[in-house]
Amino acid sequence: PAAFRRRLASYSTGDGGVAGGAADGKRLVGKVALITGGASGLGKATAHEFIQNGAQVIIADIDSELGPQTAQGLGPSAHYVRCDVTDESQVADAVDAAVARHGKLDIMYNNAGVTGPAYPPSIADLELDKFDEVMRINLRGAVAGIKHAARVMIPAGSGSILCTSSISGILAGLGPHPYTVSKFAIPGLVKSAAAELCRHGIRINCISPAPIPTPMSVGQIAQFYPGLTQEQVARIINGLGELKGAHCEDADVAKAALYLASDEAKYVTGHNLVVDGGFTCYKNLSF
Ligand code: NAD
């Protein structure tokens, strides 16, 4: 019990914890966060949420047009660095850029991801090079992010790392094989890292969202419905995750990320937070 008490104490950074939240309700005041794939979709929504809660955010994204635009739109607390997560040295540089700019890294969100080629539907026709491409971004990119976040968080003795899995990491057949495999792997990666990093006061968790219309999901689903507008495709995606008229929104993921990143989750590690309105709780999917 004494060892557990010590570990519990080590998780809290003491500024903005459960008992001592900022008076204005902001939950990440003074924190520095790096978000891969932060130029668009769920990463961008999470960057917005983190900034609203007082954080400084580094947007690390391969898209060197959209990235700076997104950072500019988010205001002076956001800064863009170009980063291709398949290149370990660029991930290392992005982490170092965050530390150089802000003196530390408190939160690392390994969120960059792609669906990859929509199909072939049969694994018998799968091109293994395409499989490798998706794994290099979705899985190896997350491993690189964890590795380099740990490099700076271990000496600091604290930190919160997040990764994005998916309901495609819980139920098979929702996406192409490489995507499904990469997303099933994320909770395993998170548990493996959590088992070690808990000794250093570092927590690591993942989030598994339901379908949300973003450039990635719209691009994927549009391949099956040629001729539909983006709005029509977005309605189809919303319909997949609909529950009693509600559907998953990027803000739902951002709020989940805020909780896991904050000291309110100071004793939560190795967890997969499913944000799906019940999607994976029942068997009879409508498609
Ligand atoms: P998105 O396309 O809006 O954003 C993905 C971002 O990742 C883009 O800005 C893109 O430039 C960036 N990116 C792609 N490859 C990269 C690389 N090699 N290095 C750095 N950045 C790279 O898509 P999104 O829906 O916001 O996806 C974010 C994450 O959420 C992904 O991991 C995805 O698998 C996951 N997810 C999405 C949904 C959904 O329905 N949208 C559901 C569950 C999980």
Short description:
InterPro entries: KR_dom (IPR057326), NAD(P)-bd_dom_sf (IPR036291), SDR_fam (IPR002347). GO terms for molecular function: oxidoreductase activity. The protein is α/β, with parallel strands linked by helices and 287 residues long.
Structure characterization notes:
With 287 residues, the chain is of the alpha/beta class. The chain contains 9 helices and 7 strands. It has helices at 2-11, 41-52, 66-74, 88-102, 128-156, 177-197, 215-222, 230-240, 250-261, and strands at residues 32-36, 56-61, 78-82, 107-110, 159-164, 202-209, 272-275. Strands 3-2-1-4-5-6-7 form a 7-stranded parallel beta sheet, with helices on both faces. Strand 2 (56-61), helix 3 and strand 3 form a beta-alpha-beta unit. Helix 2 crosses helix 9, helix 5 packs parallel to helix 6 (177-197) and helix 7 (215-222) crosses helix 8. The longest helix is centred in the middle third of the chain and has 29 residues, at 128-156. The termini are far apart. Mean pLDDT is 91; it is low at 13-20. The chain binds nicotinamide-adenine-dinucleotide (NAD). Nicotinamide-adenine-dinucleotide binds next to helix 2 and helix 7. It comes from Eucalyptus globulus (Tasmanian blue gum). One of its GO terms (molecular function) is oxidoreductase activity. Belongs to the short-chain dehydrogenases/reductases (SDR) family.
List its traits.
single chain, 287 residues, alpha/beta, seven-stranded parallel beta sheet, 9 helices, binds nicotinamide-adenine-dinucleotide
